[in-house]
């Protein structure tokens, strides 16, 4: 080794020995052998030596710092093979989609299998060279990259591969049978080449969007909503299966979004409009399917509003149907039962849908002012008259009452219900038509839980009067039995507290001597026990049991007191004129006409009227009907005056209206006394929270004017001021 100095620098020259030259020649031979082995593997031919020898050659080359050259060698050979494969595919693009894709997959499997064998031979290159040179591809990745580059260099081949995949996927969507295993292998190839994520997925999604947009637009007009929803559900399931089979889990979410958008969101208004038909048919399974889909696309608000509006419109049609007024409560109970079933079974008892149901029933039951409250009171009357029979037909008595009171809960005019229920309850108790006092107490307890004790105070007092009267009558019977001069007349009296019971119109009449004596006996007994009280007799609410002899035999007639005293007149007279009867009983003419009509023109005609006609006249003559017959021994004569007429309903409504005026006045004074000054709008808001019934602005204005006239209030610039 020689050295020389020049310009202050030192030059070192190394001379290669013959041994180094020999090693270089040996390395070149080794690389040539590896190149030949790669070519043999790609040609599926035997390698020039064993794989162990090839592996050792790679190891020695890498150890001799020839890793870069070896890596370049592999890259060149992979590029040559990839170019040949791409050229081969270019010659097959004219094949049909299935055949072409099969050809692609066959080439890919052969290429990847060969590349795996090459990776095994050059495994030491990956472990010793590639890992120490960041950015350098492994042997397998190098082969994949070369194939991808060659495919991208031939756009028509790449496009044909994607087109074939799309055609087969769309064919399967259209119902054709396809080779899913072939599609899976094709997707695997594209995924390994990083082509699937870099463009093919977007193309598949765009194709799915177009397909489902066309299908949704066509089917939404062809199918009913129920089969359309079933189709949407099936389509989503098919896409999930497709992702599981070959498209990959990464496609699951975007395909779900496409199906939801194209089949549901784009036609949401039509779907929600069609939900009315599902609700009308109570198609709970289809509604549950719709609920699940709307929850998935965040459209529950629209479904909720549709549910509320359907209840409101359908219920309003029932409530405002005056021709089927008697069936209103029964129809509304069935309607509510169906809607509750939909809420629980289809809408998962969602709180928002429960609120929609409440809003819908409140709107429809108050679409007709006050009448639903009256009809609910009458429905409860029919239930409590039948008792266990009603329970047997419609479920347990408690369930029936709960359902009816659930409707009552939606009604705003609860004071109307209170007025009618009180009047109907009084008649039911007075006429002994209640099936069970326990049922009466149960119903009132439920009303009390709903409206408070003040609401039911008078109702509870009525029941208590009936119970106390039973004890009083037990004592009176003992009192009568102990008297030696006691008559044979059996009389039962109900002592009622006037403040609890509704007021009825009284009719003065002349009573038989026996009844007058019995009344006096009871009055003497009662006042001896309860000094300082005053008894007022109400004959219109009384009833009697009269034994009558007809040609067909003896009958017991269950009649009102007025009917009974008229029948007793015929013990002494064969026939009587209208004027004779009126002079004998001294009953008001209108009431006398109704009473005579109930015995001569109704079903049980125990009297005959001459001349015949449909109404009772002043010139009519009456006599006992000798040919009267009945299969029953005890016959009830309809008591016409005890039935609510339109006039009675009108009178009750007028009384409710008058009571409302008093309540509005009291509420306004109470509010203004506390607030001192208040604007008109705030006064309306306060009244809405304190009153149990809806109040209109016109009513409030009238009551305010009345209070101003009576100097409770005065007007100010911004509202009203309370005058102490």
UniProtKB/TrEMBL annotation:
InterPro entries noted in UniProt: Cullin, Cullin-like_AB, Cullin_homology, Cullin_homology_sf, Cullin_N, Cullin_neddylation_domain, Cullin_repeat-like_dom_sf, WH-like_DNA-bd_sf
Residue stretches making up the Cullin family profile domain: 371-600
Record bears the keyword Transferase: no
GO BP: ubiquitin-dependent protein catabolic process
Gene Ontology MF term list: ubiquitin protein ligase binding
Keyword list, A-Z: Isopeptide bond, Ubl conjugation
Keyword field contains Magnesium: no
Protein name (Swiss-Prot/TrEMBL): Cullin-4
Species the sequence originates in: Chlorella sorokiniana (Freshwater green alga)
């Amino acid at each position: 080794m020689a050295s020389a100095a020049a310009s202050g620098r030192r030059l070192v020259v190394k001379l290669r020995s013959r041994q180094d030259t020999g090693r270089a020649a040996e390395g070149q031979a080794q690389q040539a052998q590896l190149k030949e082995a790669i070519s043999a593997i790609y040609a599926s031919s035997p390698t020039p030596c064993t794989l162990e020898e090839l592996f050792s050659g790679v190891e020695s080359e890498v150890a001799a710092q020839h890793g870069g050259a070896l890596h370049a060698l592999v890259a060149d050979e992979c590029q040559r093979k990839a170019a040949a494969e791409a050229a081969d595919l270019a010659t097959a693009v004219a094949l049909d989609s299935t055949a072409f894709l099969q050809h692609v997959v066959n080439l890919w499997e052969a290429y990847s299998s060969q590349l795996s064998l090459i990776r095994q031979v050059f495994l030491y290159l990956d472990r010793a060279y590639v890992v120490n040179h960041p950015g350098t591809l492994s042997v397998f990745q190098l082969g994949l990259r070369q194939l991808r580059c060659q495919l991208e260099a031939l756009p028509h081949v790449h496009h044909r591969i994607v087109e074939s995949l799309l055609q087969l996927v769309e064919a399967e969507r259209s119902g054709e049978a396809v080779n899913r295993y072939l599609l899976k292998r094709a997707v695997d190839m594209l995924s390994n080449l990083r082509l699937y994520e870099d463009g093919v997925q977007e193309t598949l999604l765009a194709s799915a969007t177009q397909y489902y947009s066309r299908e949704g637009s066509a089917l939404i007009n062809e199918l009913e909503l129920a089969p359309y929803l079933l189709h949407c559900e099936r389509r989503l399931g098919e896409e999930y299966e497709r992702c599981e089979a070959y498209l990959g889990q990464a496609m699951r979410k975007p395909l779900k979004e496409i199906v939801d958008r194209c089949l549901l969101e784009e036609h949401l208004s039509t779907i929600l409009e069609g939900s009315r038909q599902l609700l009308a048919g109570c198609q709970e399974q289809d509604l549950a399917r719709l609920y699940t889909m709307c929850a998935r696309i965040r459209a529950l608000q629209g479904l909720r509003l549709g549910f509320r509006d359907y209840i409101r419109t359908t219920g309003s049609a029932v409530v405002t149907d005056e021709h089927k007024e008697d069936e209103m409560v029964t129809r509304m109970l069935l309607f509510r039962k169906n809607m509750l079933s939909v809420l629980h079974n289809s809408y998962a008892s969602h709180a928002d849908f429960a609120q929609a149901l409440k809003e819908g029933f409140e709107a429809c039951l108050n679409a007709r002012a006050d009448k639903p409250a009256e009809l609910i009171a009458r429905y409860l009357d029919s239930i409590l008259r039948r008792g266990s029979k009603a329970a047997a037909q419609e479920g347990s008595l408690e369930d029936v009452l709960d359902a009816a009171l659930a409707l009552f809960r939606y009604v705003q005019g609860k004071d109307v219900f209170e007025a009618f229920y009180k009047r109907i309850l009084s008649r039911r108790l007075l006429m002994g038509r209640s099936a069970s006092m326990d049922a009466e107490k149960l119903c009132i307890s439920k009303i009390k839980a709903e409206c408070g004790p003040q609401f039911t105070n008078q109702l509870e007092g009525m029941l208590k009067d009936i119970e106390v009267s039973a004890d009083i009558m037990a004592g009176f019977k003992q009192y009568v039995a102990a008297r030696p001069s006691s008559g044979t007349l059996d009389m039962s009296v109900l002592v009622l507290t006037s403040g609890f019971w509704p007021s009825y119109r009284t009719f003065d009449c002349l009573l038989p001597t026996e009844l007058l004596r019995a009344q006096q006996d009871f009055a003497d007994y009662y006042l001896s026990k309860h000094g300082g009280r005053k008894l007022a007799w109400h004959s219109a609410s009384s009833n009697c049991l009269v034994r009558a002899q007809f040609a067909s035999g003896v009958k017991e007639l269950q009649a009102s007191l007025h009917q009974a005293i008229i029948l007793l007149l015929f013990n002494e007279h064969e026939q009587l004129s209208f004027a004779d009867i009126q002079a004998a009983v001294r009953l008001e003419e209108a009431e006398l006409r109704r009473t005579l009509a109930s015995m001569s023109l109704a079903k049980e005609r125990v009297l005959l009227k001459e001349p015949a006609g449909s109404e009772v006249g002043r010139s009519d003559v009456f006599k006992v009907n000798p040919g009267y017959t009945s299969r029953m021994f005890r016959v009830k004569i309809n008591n016409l005056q005890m039935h609510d007429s339109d006039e009675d309903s009108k009178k009750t409504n007028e009384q409710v209206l008058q009571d409302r005026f008093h309540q509005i006045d009291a509420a306004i004074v109470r509010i203004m006394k506390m607030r001192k000054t208040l604007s008109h709008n705030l006064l309306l808001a306060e009244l809405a929270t304190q009153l149990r019934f809806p109040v209109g602005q016109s009513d409030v204005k009238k009551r305010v004017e009345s209070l101003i006239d009576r100097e409770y209030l005065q007007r100010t610039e911004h509202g009203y001021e309370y005058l102490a």
